[in-house]
Amino acid sequence: MLRVGGAPGGDEDGVHFVNCAGAIGRRTPSGDEIRTDEDFAAHLLESRRVAVIHGAAYGAPGYFRISFATSHDILTAACEGIARACADLS
């Protein structure tokens, strides 16, 4: 469902864009439709307390931006949360 890299403008050191197009059109457990990368970012925050920035804010709709400038433990927990949030979608 997700793919790292490939956003317009490329990736910067410590920041990567992740393609979330596979989540568009899917539904959260509460029945809300994920229509945009902004909806997906909101789903991550609300369901798993993972904060990312929607790609449209950087001219890259269909992606979200994740910063790797944090500890390994926090990054691991965030990645696990993102995976669970994706698995929650139908």
Characteristic key phrases:
PyrdxlP-dep_Trfase_small, 16% strand, Aminotransferase_I/II_large, 90 residues, Aspartate Aminotransferase, domain 1, alpha+beta, 32% helix
Structural description of this entry:
26% of the residues are buried. It contains two helices and four strands. It is an alpha+beta fold and 90 residues long. It starts with a strand and ends with a helix. Strand 3 and strand 4 form a beta hairpin. The protein has helices at residues 37-48, 72-88; strands at residues 3-4, 15-19, 53-54, 63-67. The protein is globular, with a radius of gyration of 12 Å. Residues 30-82 form the Aminotransferase class I/classII large domain.
Indicate the structural class.
alpha+beta
Could you spell the SSE succession in H and E letters?
EEHEEH
Rounded to an integer, what's the Rg over CA atoms?
12 Å
Please give the alpha-carbon distance between the first and last residues. Answer: 12 Å
The average pLDDT score comes to 88
CATH class: Alpha Beta
Beta-strand percent range: 15-25%
What is the fold named in CATH at topology level?
A: Aspartate Aminotransferase, domain 1
Q: CATH H-level name... which superfamily?
A: Aspartate Aminotransferase, domain 1
Characterize the biggest β-sheet: 4 strands, antiparallel
Main sheet: which strands, in order across? 1-2-4-3
The CATH level-2 architecture is identified as Alpha-Beta Complex
Number of strands: 4
Low-pLDDT segments: none
Helix content: 25-40%
Overall tally of structural domains: 1
Q: What's the total helix number?
A: 2
The coarse silhouette is globular
